Amino acid sequence: MSSTKPDLPNPTGDLNWSAFRGVIQDNFSTNAEAHPDRLFGYPTWRDRHVLQLQRSRLSCHRHGNPESWSDFLSYRSVVPPDRQNIYLDVARPRALVVIDKGTREGGELTEKVRNFIHDNLQLRTEVPGLELKDDGTLVGGNVNSKDVLAEQLSLNSKSPGVVVRPDSTPTPSFTSGPEGRPKGVRGRHYSLAYYFDWMTEQFHLTENDKFTMLRTQLLVPSKDDIQHERLAEWMLEHGATITHLTPAMGQILVGGASAEFPALYHSFFVGDILIKRDCKSLQRLAPNLFIVNMYRTTEIQPVSYYEIPRMKDVQLLIVDRENRNRICDVGEIREIYVRAAGLAEGYLGSDELKKTKGLQNHFPRSHGENSIRVQEICIGRADDQVKIRGFRIELGEIDKYLSDHEMVLDNTTLVRRNKDEEQMLVSYIVPDMQKWSLWLEQKGLVDDTSGPEGMPKQLSFVSSTSVLDTPYFVKLSQDSATKGGSSVSEDDDLSGSVMGLGTGYGQSKWVAEYLVRAAGARGLRGTIIRPGYATGDKTSGVTSTDDFLIRMTKGCIQLGCRPKIANTVNMVPVNHVERVVVAAAFSPPKTPLAVAQVTSHPRLTFSQYLATLQTYGYNVPEVEYSVWKKKLGDYALADDGREQHAL
């Protein structure tokens, strides 16, 4: 007998840690030597004052100390000061390059930046006139009639000979954080080139593709182009074939756009939930587009994709949260860990985050092997963090601030979806009613009002005659009619139907009326409206097809007959109910609280009501109720494939 045990991943299997493909700059150098005439980048800025590289050939080499991380930070003074502060606090660069021309045009250095340079950077070098020419030549300005970078020009084509290891940090990536500031993630050199072959084969990438720099390389739109309508036109103009977007940027791409860009055939999305509406809108403009939804690309650089079980040499492990040395079986709901050779090294400047998120693998093959705890389980996240419109939000933080209000006794915040399947935050609050009157007095309001204008509100509560559907009120109504009375009085406290209501609808309406009357005894002003069966529009006849009376007529048509029933039915057109509700709100029958029972005039019997079918051409002769009931039972029990419909 073959084993039925599921094929679970081996948490100690070899994922090719020794398959380092080499440093990324060597790949760039090799390609540049093989194809010296090809463009590296294709910026499309419209501002003529900005350096134009559209027709120039540029080869850029930047080498830093492989033992350090985030060695260089390209500073732009046009970035808002708050964001400058975040970059400096998180990245903590060892070197900061400030181009004087940029600060003159974009704004001076902030005090935060000047203090950082003074306090943290021991080595300071000034290049008097750093300039990048249109042909790719870099000059530094003249000192003693000689360019300060002249002696380094001979080294331009030579490698600096720096040894870069798989664990060296070539790139810091920033991801949003629940604390209100981003986290800097230390990438590893191993993953930069290792997955090229796999992605090229899996997504059919070629050397002729044009990548956009909407969070990736290499077509660079101007700031003016990144807006509704313009971005789609830019895509069409420059013929991008591959793009890498967040869902928010994807919405900008399709927002108000009419220009189609058929050259685009692959779009990678990451960073937030991707909904069907946005995908269809994008594919309407890019008919050849294939959308790939990526997962956890910041910390887990060897990312897995929706369309593929997993990448090469990547494992998703479902680990027991109580015993992290145990792999869960199929069907168990536990926490997700990712294991691969190309995981990020950790977080910039935060050893604590690495301890909690980038954990040492519980099933190591070698010393130092890590796995990433993604803080998600099979049915949701392991914490209370959600992501809405690109922003990470901590639900517990919202609850904390709400609970700080003196009037809030208890509260909870949840995520709901609106009609467009977009996530929304909804907070439910239980107020401390014992402090309510004191709070009103402090606000200068009278005790029996709830609005700052001091005007009491009118309540119109729509109930139902279902609260009277008990033998007690049937007998009371018959006795009253015999004596010439007006049936059940509006002043009745409904104590006769405390027991005997057979439906949840009638029971819920009874409880609601009881609460409203209790509030009326404490000063609430308003009216309880008790309509009978609210039928359709009295002019057009439009009504709910799932209503009991409508289903009764449909059932009679199916059976080919109608029952003889002498009981009356209290049917009221919905137009009339609406008028009574409005009238009771503006002019209640009595104060502070009244009851308005809405009845039909004249009151029809069931036989009269169902006879209208014959009037409108349906052949449904009237039969005794017992005959109709037998035909109904036979129809329901017949196994002839007929649709039951109303029956």
TrEMBL record:
Query: Known SUPFAM superfamilies for this protein?
Result: Acetyl-CoA synthetase-like, NAD(P)-binding Rossmann-fold domains
Entry keywords, A to Z: Phosphopantetheine, Phosphoprotein
Q: Where is the Thioester reductase (TE) domain?
A: 457-579
Q: Where is this region: Disordered?
A: 159-183
Q: Name one Pfam family in it.
A: NAD_binding_4
**Where do the TM regions start and end?**
none
- Kindly list any coiled-coil regions of this protein: none
Q: Where is the AMP-dependent synthetase/ligase domain?
A: 81-348
Know the name of this protein? L-aminoadipate-semialdehyde dehydrogenase
Q: Which organism is it from?
A: Cudoniella acicularis
Source organism phylogeny: Eukaryota, Fungi, Dikarya, Ascomycota, Pezizomycotina
